[in-house]
Design goal:
By secondary structure, this protein is α+β, with helices and mostly antiparallel strands. Helices cover 16% and strands 34% of the residues. The N and C termini lie far apart (73 Å).
Length: 268
């Protein structure tokens, strides 16, 4: 009887040890994941088409948290443990950045940095001007924009920003308030953002307010710009992408819903 009870006690100890080891492994994994997410790379998904053709709905991207240094928005839930940025590296014009806006701490935005501190930005008849100079663009093949039940051809350009950055962008028209704006004087320590889908983007031209009226940038409290503190990081590459054609339970359709050609592609 004693030998049997000793064996059973040993089995119970092994069982408890196995549970504790599992808990420790899970805790270590969570801590490592939080550290990577906070200081190295964080995944985001793209739910809207404001950055087409650079980013598509259904793209999953990795954002480098160290590119611009760290702020409270680098931390989980944007915990206000400190103000400003530490180890700050100023963004480059043309970067695709993920950020928060001062009025909304719950939504992540992704746009292209068009205006740097001190710049004067204006859109006139659909053409972008920086410090009074026309930003050159070159017409390339039409972009086939997929809408429910239709494919709409859109004008596609390669835009060449001051400093050498080039990127693709699409347009429908050169009319309307998004294409005819006041001059935006970008304040020190802040940035002017625009989407590559120029006629369908909630960005610095409309104060991230969801309407199409121009942001009156010289009025007190204008929300046209993104402070450096609100930058989360730079979008680096697409690591996964789905076109939305398969429901979660249609596992037999999953391989056909993946955009295989977009996997692990760099973001420019």
């Amino acid at each position: 009887m004693k030998s049997r009870s000793v064996r059973n006690a040993g089995a119970k100890k092994q069982s408890k040890g196995g549970v504790l080891d599992t808990i420790k492994t899970v805790v270590y994994a969570v801590v490592i994941a939080l550290l990577v997410r906070t200081f190295a790379y964080e995944p985001f998904n793209i739910p809207s088409g404001s950055m087409i053709p650079t980013l598509l709905v259904g793209d999953y991207i990795f954002v480098s948290k160290f590119s611009y240094g760290y702020s409270r928005y680098s931390l989980p839930f944007g915990l206000p443990l400190f103000s400003g940025r530490i180890f700050f590296h100023p963004p480059h014009r043309g970067d695709v950045a993920v950020f928060k806006v001062p009025t909304n701490n719950s939504t992540d935005f992704v746009k292209r940095i068009i205006g740097l501190p001190g710049d004067n930005i204006q859109v006139t008849r659909g053409q972008l001007y920086i410090d009074g100079r026309l930003v050159p663009r070159k017409r390339i093949g039409d972009y086939m924009y997929h809408e429910p039940g239709a494919i709409v051809p859109m004008r596609q350009y390669t835009e060449s920003l001051p400093g050498g950055a080039k990127h693709r962008m699409i347009k429908i028209t050169n009319k309307g308030p998004l294409n005819n704006t006041p001059i935006y004087h970008v304040p020190a320590g802040e940035y002017f953002m625009m989407g590559d889908n120029r006629d369908d983007s909630e960005d610095s031209r409309v104060a991230f307010g969801g309407n199409v009226r121009p942001c009156f940038a010289d009025k007190p409290g204008a929300l046209c710009y993104v402070p450096a503190q609100n930058l989360i990081g730079r979008a680096e590459f697409v690591f996964f992408s789905v076109n939305g054609s398969a429901r979660w339970w249609q596992f037999w359709e999953w391989p056909f819903a993946i955009r295989w050609d977009r996997l692990f592609t760099a973001i420019h």
